[in-house]
Amino acid sequence: MYMYKPNEFESAGSLQNFSMDVLLRDGSVLRMRALQQSDREPLIALLNRCSPETIRYRFLRMITSLPDSLVDKLVEVDGRNHVALVVTQGEGPDEKILAVGRYFAEEERPQVAEVSFMIEDAMQRRGLGTILLDTLADIARSHNITRFSADVLADNRQMLSVFRKAGYGLSSNIS
């Protein structure tokens, strides 16, 4: 599996142009690239293909559609404090977003960023969460972000496993 290296990002000069092939555990090759403003509709299509459980895991509550204000927030990335990567299949008009991973740097603690993921049900358990997490961590380090935080529901064992296998410390709060 080819992984992103921070010096590649720095030499490219802009996350907007970031794109690379990724190899999944099953041998499939997909494309990972930076989220673009033009990804509004494909992002909504991804949500529409996800199960209620996947949506609840991502947004920590059940939602049936994304309000325009939330879609605006999700596509307004700056490549530094708010970074979003998508994993896609196909090209041009046939391109389909299969997964998205992102981080938001916290205003009060700029060295910490909240990280989140949404992976289409059919693509889960194939290594996409790990690939996105590793790549986001490399990008974050190049922007002096040293820690990730995440709100994960206790029954989201898959995501907890991704964090655990990556060596992240886990703590729990009940609210």
Folded structure, characterized:
The model is unreliable at 1-7 (pLDDT under 50). The chain has a 6-stranded mixed sheet, sandwiched between helices. The protein has helices spanning 6-12, 40-49, 52-59, 68-75, 128-141, 157-165, and strands spanning 19-23, 29-34, 82-89, 96-105, 112-119, 147-149. Helices cover 32% and strands 23% of the residues. The chain is globular and about 40 Å long. The longest helix has 14 residues, at 128-141. With 175 residues, the chain is α+β, with helices and mostly antiparallel strands. The protein has one domain (6-165): Gcn5-related N-acetyltransferase (GNAT) (Aminopeptidase), CATH 3.40.630. 24% of the residues are buried. The protein is built from 6 helices and 6 strands, in the order αββαααβββαβα.
Using brief descriptors, characterize the structure shown.
175 residues, Aminopeptidase, 6 helices
Q: For the record, what is the CATH homologous superfamily label?
A: Gcn5-related N-acetyltransferase (GNAT)
The helix/strand class is alpha+beta
Order of helices and strands: HEEHHHEEEHEH
- Sheet with most strands: 6 strands, mixed
What is the number of beta strands?
Answer: 6
Helix share bin: 25-40%
CATH topology term? Aminopeptidase
Outline type? globular
Q: Would you identify the CATH architecture? A: 3-Layer(aba) Sandwich
CATH class group: Alpha Beta
SS element count, helices: 6
**Strand order in the largest sheet:** 1-2-3-4-5-6
Uncertain parts: 1-7
Q: In what range is the share of β-strand residues?
A: 15-25%
Please indicate the count of domains: 1
Mean pLDDT comes to: 85
Question: Whole-Å distance between the termini?
Answer: 39 Å
